Amino acid sequence: MNKCIFLDRDGVINKDYVDYVYTPEKWELLPGLKEALTSLKKAGYKLVIVTNQSGIAKGIYTREQMHECHQLMQKQLDFAIDHIYYAPWHESVTNSLTRKPGSLMFEKAMAKFNVDPKLSWMIGDKDRDLIPAKKLGIKTIQVDHSDSKNADYKAANLPDALEIIFG
């Protein structure tokens, strides 16, 4: 079985904006991210992004615009991300088990990559990122300064989370 780092996108990988990130002009990787992900890959972790992208359902941006940002991200990160799962839904339009706090994106990744939840971590900035991971037995790290009752650990950012993961 494989170990995996599940990552939220906005606020963990890239700078988050209230009005969404869906153009290359707004795309900004957070500091130290490339080096942190390289360390995780060298340690044998699969890297999987699980991200809600409700702006698609709301008609704010298209899947194509989101994919353009993901292609830019992969290029900036030397294609370190093994897979990106996204939920383009919003509860005002439709309900979906893929949308966090639902766990379907995680379950798909666990099946695809033969992931052992006990060896894996979820890094997110919001409570809804951590809820499905906790339900599946995945350890959780909350980055940023929010307060989550579902966080096993807290770190300022992804590079600081490495100290927790590597112990």
What is the fold's blueprint, element by element?
Elements: E1 3-7, H1 33-42, E2 45-52, H2 63-76, E3 83-87, H3 104-113, E4 121-124, H4 127-135, E5 139-143, E6 153-155, H5 158-166
Parallel strand pairs: 1-2, 1-4, 2-3, 4-5, 5-6
Care to describe what's here?
It is built from 5 helices and 6 strands. It has 167 residues and is of the alpha/beta class. It has a single domain, classed as Rossmann fold, CATH 3.40.50.1000. Strands 3-2-1-4-5-6 form a 6-stranded parallel beta sheet, with helices on both faces. It is globular, with a radius of gyration of 15 Å. The model has no long low-confidence stretch (mean pLDDT 94).
Radius of gyration: 15 Å
Largest sheet: 6 strands, parallel
Strand order of the largest sheet: 3-2-1-4-5-6
Shape: globular
- SSE arrangement, N to C: EHEHEHEHEEH
Task: Name the poorly predicted regions.
Answer: none
Overall domain count: 1
Helical run tally: 5
CATH hierarchy class name: Alpha Beta
- Counted beta strands: 6
Relative helix content: 25-40%
CATH topology category name? Rossmann fold
CATH-wise, what's the superfamily? HAD superfamily/HAD-like
Q: Which structural category fits the helices and strands? A: alpha/beta
- Fraction of residues in β-strands: 15-25%
Please name the CATH architecture.
Answer: 3-Layer(aba) Sandwich
Mean pLDDT: 94
Rounded to the nearest angstrom, the distance between the terminal CA atoms is 21 Å
